[in-house]
Design a protein that fits this description.
This protein is α/β, with parallel strands linked by helices. The protein has one domain: UDP N-Acetylglucosamine Acyltransferase, domain 1, CATH 2.160.10. It is about 15% helix and about 35% strand. It is built from 1 helix and 20 strands. The strands form 2 sheets. Strands 1, 2, 4, 6, 8, 9, 11, 12, 14, 15, 17 and 18 form a 12-stranded parallel β-sheet that branches. Strands 3-5-7-10-13-16-19-20 form an 8-stranded mixed β-sheet. β19 and β20 form a beta hairpin. It starts with a strand and ends with a helix. It holds the Pfam family Hexapep.
Length: about 180
């Protein structure tokens, strides 16, 4: 089974979610309505919490994790992902905060304490270092991530459309599995 309990805490799924059977969702993980978790995703909410918003898609091979609470870091670093977010294939998100309408390109890494504001594109392979803030309305690329340019109007529109596309795709998968 894709969803597993850890220390008595089970993942909480919103309505009409799709969780691929090859993914692993463990512990204190909350997934919003109409969101999708694709093959080989690992989301381990064991030493802190993971929250995923509505209509968000986490694509194949992505790892979602957190940082434990300690004397040096009282709250640790939870992972919070907003609504209408597209997380590309094979990304690593660790103890960071993502707003709404974001596209995280394939293979990107976002580290502890980083904050990504609403309406942001993160290019494939980008490394967002610890505690960095990515401002709303820009494309970021590189290692470390650098602000490349403002998003164009059609790119901002695509952020929402990407989420809609994945809601439709997960609906197809849910219907297929019900047959």
């Amino acid at each position: 089974m894709a969803c597993r309990t850890y220390k008595g805490i089970a993942p909480v799924l919103g309505e009409n979610c799709f969780i691929d059977e090859t993914s692993v969702i463990v512990g204190d993980v909350t997934i919003g309505d109409d969101s999708s978790i694709w093959p080989l995703v690992a989301a381990r909410g064991d030493v802190n919490t993971i929250t995923i918003g509505k209509r968000t898609n986490v694509q194949d091979g992505t790892v979602l994790h957190v940082t434990r609470r300690s004397d040096q870091n009282i709250n640790g670093y939870a992972l919070a992902i907003g609504d209408d977010v597209t997380i590309g294939h094979k990304c690593m998100l660790h103890g960071c905060t993502l707003g709404n309408r974001i596209l995280v390109g394939m293979g990107a890494i976002i580290m502890d304490g980083a904050v990504v504001q609403d309406d942001v594109f993160i290019g494939a392979g980008t490394l967002v270092p610890p505690n960095k803030t990515l401002e709303s309305g820009y494309l970021y690329v590189g290692n470390p991530a650098k602000q490349a340019r403002p998003l164009k109007h059609h790119e901002k529109a695509f952020l929402k459309q990407s989420a809609i596309n994945y809601v439709e795709l997960k609906n197809d998968y849910r219907q297929e599995s019900n047959n």
